[in-house]
Target: Type II secretion system F family protein
Amino acid sequence: MTAGPEWPCLLLAAALLLVPSRVPVIARLCAGPVGGRAAAPGTRGPVDPVATATLFDLLAACLRAGLPTDGAVRAVVPTCPARLAEPLQHAADLLAMGADPATAWAPAGSEAAAAPEFEALARLARRSARSGSSLATAVGELAEEHRALVEEAATARAERAGVLIGGPLGLCFLPAFVCLGIVPVIVGLAGRVLGGALL
Model:
């Protein structure tokens, strides 16, 4: 009996089920590549600046479409980064219950306090509620600022990479320059000098 193509899959499944581990089987299957670890529940990484700029663009579009502030925030919460979801949902709930914008946009809990993106949005929302200015325009400008920061960081990384690449390239080309450029000149000059001395 020859082994079919399904045998490797069956052996892998049996190994996943039988190998003892502290991580549950489902978590190991969802961990991605071999050797990858599943993220522990409750841990949230840093906020992606591109995702934040996209979130602010989407929020500005919802506000321009005529949604009230609480409805616009509720609309973007499912697509926002994990660290911003809880404080934004909290602010939307308070606004929907008729709370004052200064109270609704106050940081609540450690998640909001640790997210400067939420604080920037909350500051704009409180200022817009006091002055009556357009929140959609301010949020759009905030998105542009985040996008500019991303571009500046990418440019800085590219320039730093160019500087770091220069060292190895110099080490590669320097021996060739010495061997093909300097050594023949020295040999030629030495030949002339020694030849003239011998004459």
In short: Residues 49-153 form one domain.
